[in-house]
Amino acid sequence: MSLQLQAGSVVFENVTKMYGAVTAIDNVSFSIEPGHLVTLLGPSGCGKTTTLRMIAGLEHPTSGRILIGGKDVTNLPATDRDVSMVFQSYALFPHMTVGENVAYGLSVGGLSKRDAAERAEEGLALVGLAGYDARLPSELSGGQQQRVAVARALVLEPEVLLLDEPLSNLDAKLRRKVREEIRDLQQKLGLTAVYVTHDQEEALAVSDRIIVMNRSVIAQEGTPRELYEAPASPFIADFIGDANLVEGEIMRLAASEATVRIDTIQCQLPSRGMQSGPAQVAIRPDSIMLEHASTNLVGIKGNVTHSTYLGNQMHYTVESPLGELFVVDYRIDNAITAGSDISMTFATRGMSLIAS
């Protein structure tokens, strides 16, 4: 016996979810192609978990349609949908062995004990835990327990794998390792996966596409690079990685390029369909270049109010004519002390015009 995984699509058509007078999801539409990993990202209360639960069938929409693999599942219960969920808490039975935990859903579904055990072994092998079937969950690390939870979901051969904050219980170093394992497995098996997180770095690392939600609607969706390099709003610019939002002016337009003045500096940026006149510019913290004012470089003058050493980088807070700016600098051997006067210029990337 071998696992038969068939990736399915997910489509939301004008889905709204109400809890009494509270709108949790407001007329949301999106589609997820088979074999893609799409992350629902956003701050607490934005609607991402409600969206995931509606895909799972744990919640039902007030209006609109949900399709999985081309089939309308809007009103189907969770048991009749071809999806599996990996929960934040792992939800492993402590009194069962790893093998019994992975086989549990199969056994409940009517598969023979022998076939369920065989498929559980295949699932554990997929996640790198072959031979662990006789152990108890308490004998595993947090990362191994998370992989058991993934194996338990995979053996049900779902069209869509749902992951609800799957790494939140792991420490930072282990989160990086397990997220790479989940991404590698998803690509190797060609799974359709919907991943919920509030961690922007995690979303950038694992996703084919990201759907950013805010206040019950989709704020922007696109590839990680599109969202980071071409944010559609001040919210997206600040939420997907840090950004300094400053006032500038579009001086000239030529084809798809704009000449933008920011205080005393002029730079060339993609125009993004904007017109001449005042405009907001998002500047990533590592795109601001600082030099001691004594070097007499042409730039924007400022003063470092805070200087923090973080091992492989320096973090600075700078007071300037543009307002208070957050700066990341990797030149740790030439750190600037708090109280120093500086001159600022900008790197050639990491800046974008933002529609107000």
Detailed description of the structure:
With 356 residues, the chain is of the alpha+beta class. The protein is built from eight helices and 20 strands. The mean pLDDT is 91.
* Poorly predicted runs: none
- The assigned structural class equals alpha+beta
Total strand segments: 20
pLDDT averaged over residues: 91
How can the largest sheet be summarized? Answer: 6 strands, mixed
N→C terminal distance: 57 Å
Structural shape: globular
Task: Estimate percent helicity.
Answer: 10-25%
Order of helices and strands: EEEHEEEHHHEHEHEEHHEEEEEEEEEE
What is the number of helical segments per DSSP (H or I, 4+ residues)? 8
Strand proportion: 35-45%
The radius of gyration is 24 Å
Identify the strand order in the major beta sheet.
6-7-8-3-9-10
Short recap of the structure:
This protein has 356 residues and is an alpha+beta fold. The protein has helices at residues 48-56, 98-108, 113-126, 142-154, 172-189, 200-206, 224-229, 234-239; strands at residues 10-19, 22-32, 37-41, 63-68, 71-72, 83-86, 160-164, 192-197, 209-214, 217-222, 244-254, 257-262, 265-270, 277-283, 288-292, 300-309, 314-320, 323-329, 341-346, 351-354. Helix 2 runs parallel beside helix 4 (142-154) and helix 3 (113-126) crosses helix 4 (142-154).
